[in-house]
Amino acid sequence: MAAMTIDVAAGESRIAALCALAQRTRDLMDAVLATDVGEDELLAVSAEMAALTDRLSAAVRVSPQSFDIGPDGTVRHLGNAAIGAANPYAVPLTVEHVPDGGVRAEVTFRPLHEGPPGGVHGGVTAMALDHLLGQAVAAAGLAGMTGTLTIRYKALVPYGRPVVVSARHTRSEGRKTWAEGRVALPDGTLLAEATGLFITPTEWMNRRVTYTPQ
């Protein structure tokens, strides 16, 4: 374990640089979506991006950024599509415990997440809810894979404004665990709600999860 701690500490500066690059890439993605510069500038920037892609491709892994151990000893997933600080696609969500045993994340979606005009794509909303439901299950000391996810969209989920995604574990029966979640405005106005069934793989049944929000 000591060797692992040393390795993690030694790699933190590179991870910080990688996460900073991911954030710059998010900013670039937002700029691409909103830009109104002329064709010549578009072509010039495209050429620069191709050169940068070549530089980053000089050394690549065969798989995305996987789980690792943070400096505080907790598991983190930098490549996760919902929370991964090193994944440019991620919002990313920052999940925290709440006193009643559930989890929550305050997030401001971006125009990049648009579906209907002025609103967040339903699939992006579903991803956020799915992740929070899974985190709620983990917060209860359980572990499982999404079996079913049922979502009821109540109102347009806006981008460019803060919303709160929250979830809590409701019950468990053997390998099955249920959780409920919601997306709401900060004033409590309900925008979407969900229920999820999570299945614990047989090989995980004798394990308990030590959960730390990311």
**What is the chain-wise order of helices and strands?**
HHEEEEHEEEE
- Overall, the morphology is globular
What is the number of strand segments? 8
How many alpha or pi helices?
A: 3
- Write down the overall mean pLDDT: 88
The major beta sheet can be summarized as: 6 strands, antiparallel
What is the CATH architecture term of the largest domain? Roll
* CATH superfamily caption of the largest domain: Hotdog Thioesterase
Quickly name the level 1 CATH class of the largest domain.
Alpha Beta
Supply the number of structural domains.
Answer: 2
Could you name the ranges where pLDDT drops below 50 across 5 or more consecutive residues?
A: 1-10
What is the percentage of strand-forming residues?
25-35%
- Distance N terminus to C terminus? 22 Å
Helix content: 25-40%
**What's the gyration radius in Å?**
19 Å
Helix/strand/pairing category = alpha+beta
Instruction: State the CATH topology of the largest domain.
Output: Thiol Ester Dehydrase, Chain A
Strand order of the largest sheet: 3-4-6-7-8-5
